[in-house]
# Entry
Amino acid sequence: MELIIAAALCSVLVSILLKVGKSRGLNPIHLIGWNYATASILCFFWFKPDFTHMSVSNTPWLLIGALGILLPSVFLLLARALQTAGILKTEIAQRLSVVLSLTAAYFIFQEQFNQLKLLGIGLGISAVLCILFSHRGDTSTGKRGMMYLGLVWVGYALIDVLLKYTTSLGLQFALTLNMMFICAFVLSMAYLAVQYKHLGDLKHVGAGLVLGGLNFANIAFYVKAHMLLKDTPAIVFAGMNILVVMFGVLAGLILFKERLKPASSIGLVLGISSVICLAYAMSA
# Structure
């Protein structure tokens, strides 16, 4: 359970760092770009991907490239959502992207659905709709927050589906993950060089490397928890998602003085119920 708590804390700390960094004058795209340098190095030493048996001709470079673009792009959308909608709603939308990826799995990978999984998906979609519509009638900033929340929800689901499809082609998880991080880093640096004419000062580089450490720690702890609790994956899935949502809510209420609207509160309850239903469906 300690690993799940650590993974959830790292996930929320990533959001906190992005939100605080923006208020301190740090450009999120620079932090996100440099985060993939740390993530790439740590992934290589932690998961030890087997590059020696990698086949250049059989590697789906198009998919790896698409993920290399999507990862920093969706990360940037996450940063925008944090600023306009707040950490509380952003964490819920990010975690509930699983309902979209599960729905896609039904149509793309022909996964079987039981009634509990269908209920979980229905609750999850209802939760996100409540979160989105809590911005209805807000200022233009609030409406942008609604748009960014929706894009975060769809974006993380798309990454999840592409990752699953890529690994189904035979690539090892560690190798796929490392290649994604390297590709995201190279493309991010190229974008910074062209768009901003510089790769960031020491302050941006340092904060970005810390962000990458937290981002990778989240993944590493989560994977390790799945390995140690391989007979009960539902506990890891439910524990991780519920804890991230709860830590995100606490961070929003205590650190950033965000307020829960009635629609957001309903969305929070529906979201946790969705995760619990999906966890039970996994163990059924």
Summary: The chain is about 80% helix and 0% strand. The chain has one domain: 2-49+56-283. Residues 140-168 form the longest helix (29 residues). The mean pLDDT is 88.
